[in-house]
Design brief:
There is one protein chain. The chain has helices spanning about 65-75, 90-95, 115-130, 145-155, 170-185, 195-200, 205-215, 230-245, 270-285, 300-305, 315-320, 330-335, 335-340, 345-350; strands at about 105-110, 135-140, 220-225, 250-255, 290-295, 325-330, 355-360, 370-375, 380, 385. The protein is an alpha/beta fold and about 400 residues long. α4 (about 145-155) crosses α7 (about 205-215) and α8 (about 230-245) runs parallel beside α9. The chain starts with about 60 loop residues before the first helix and ends in a 13-residue tail after the last strand.
């Protein structure tokens, strides 16, 4: 009996710049040094303005050369240095200058279960939904299959429309798959046999699958290993993707403290985090791409009612190296007491809202609070948020 794959029912895919790209790495107990990429063939002349050595640093250039390179890009219609990539979350994009920019490192921190992975995967999905952009999502905690299941639940809500009536939960998705396979096993006529056909034929999952397939070729996922997937491996894989996509890729890391550090021997966790965050910033600068990374909170931060940037696990390098730092807190937990006492019923509804605070913003205003409603069982945020109007703890009043 032959075994069918998930993609057996898919139509022939369109050619993709990633078709011949191999990002697989061996997961062994001891890390194996990556083989250097083959030297380029003797070459065609590199046009001025494209002389960047991906995977390495810039060569020294005079200001005149920099001006000429920038001028050539604009003449050729290459405006990527001036046009940010929207995250799809409003008003976040407005506060950070329109979206993510190349060479920038964005950190997202908060307590466990607050929605960091939900937000990050949703933003990766939003970027990959653009026909000219790719997202590279490294997860140290979830398999690619689990992330795919999360995306199915997210797409069932169809953000930003957020149709709760059509939404499915992870439990519902599993039940649909198991029930259909059981029907096939029992010989029922018309029962679907493959995962692809089950999801395509069921009325609750068919629309979500259709939406997911629109960007499936541009969202690259990897279950990373805390023992093997180090900074060098991440940079090497991302460099290959940057070469294959013309630099139109955004790197997402879930999460920073899990990145393997070798052959370096950090003295303690602060030293380890310093090495990692400096490495991620180097990837953003040398590959000329945006990098977005989740950061876990430390023990003191988990005890605090409101988590701040200084509560993130590791060193002050998190603050120094990042261009944008966003901290997530549950709105109910950080509301000033007078709001809770005045209307406890309304206050309880704030449990489903997460406050995103831009605590560092190198290119704009910092200490700005906005709020987004979370649908945790569907692994989705409503990306249409708003500025926080209520008073929060820390005696900070939000200006209207």
């Amino acid at each position: 009996m032959s075994t069918r794959r998930f993609t057996d029912d898919l139509p022939d895919p369109k050619p993709s710049p990633l078709d011949n790209l191999d990002l697989q790495q061996e997961e062994k107990a001891a890390p194996k040094p990556l083989q250097p990429r083959p030297a380029p063939e003797p070459a065609k002349r590199v046009p001025r303005g494209q002389a960047k050595n991906r995977g390495g640093a810039h060569l020294p250039r005079t200001l005149t050369q920099v001006i000429n390179e920038a001028n050539d890009k604009v003449v050729q219609g290459d405006l990527v240095d001036y046009v940010p990539m929207p995250t799809g979350f409003d008003p976040l994009d407005g506060f950070i200058g329109g979206g993510l920019r190349k060479t920038e490192l964005v950190l997202l921190g908060g307590a466990q279960g607050i929605g960091k992975t939900i937000a990050t995967l949703q933003i990766a999905r939003n970027i990959a939904s653009r026909p000219d952009q790719y997202a590279f999502y490294l997860s140290y905690e979830h398999t690619e299959t689990h992330l795919m299941h999360r995306l199915m639940c997210l797409e069932s809500l169809n953000p930003p429309e957020v149709d709760i009536a059509s939404g499915i939960k992870l439990r519902d998705l599993y039940q649909i798959i198991v029930a259909q396979r059981a029907k096939k096993f029992m010989g029922r006529d018309g029962a679907a046999s493959s995962l692809q056909s089950i999801l395509r034929d069921h009325p609750k999952t068919a629309p979500a699958l259709g939406r997911m397939l629109r960007y499936a070729d541009r969202l690259i996922m990897l279950k990373a290993s805390p023992a093997v997937t180090n900074l060098r491996a991440i940079k090497e894989m991302t460099a290959r993707l940057a070469d294959a996509t013309g630099g139109n890729v955004t790197l997402f890391v879930d999460y920073l403290q899990k990145i393997a550090v070798h052959p370096e021997r950090p003295r303690d966790e602060n030293d380890k985090v310093t090495i990692i965050v400096e490495g991620l910033k180097d990837i953003a600068l040398s590959l000329d791409i945006p990098v977005w990374s989740i950061v876990a909170a430390d023990r003191e931060g988990l005890k605090s009612k409101r988590i701040h940037l200084y509560h993130l696990r590791g060193s002050s390098a998190l603050d120094y190296e990042s261009d944008i730092a966003i901290i997530m807190n549950n709105k109910y937990q950080i509301l000033a007491k007078d709001h809770v006492a005045f209307n406890p019923y309304t206050a309880k509804q704030y449990r489903n809202w997460v406050v995103w605070t831009i605590e560092k913003n190198r290119a704009g205003r910092a200490m700005t609070d906005m709020e987004f409603e979370i649908f945790g069982q569907h692994f989705a945020f409503n990306p249409r948020g708003q500025r926080v109007q209520q008073q929060l703890i820390d005696n900070k009043v939000i200006e209207n």
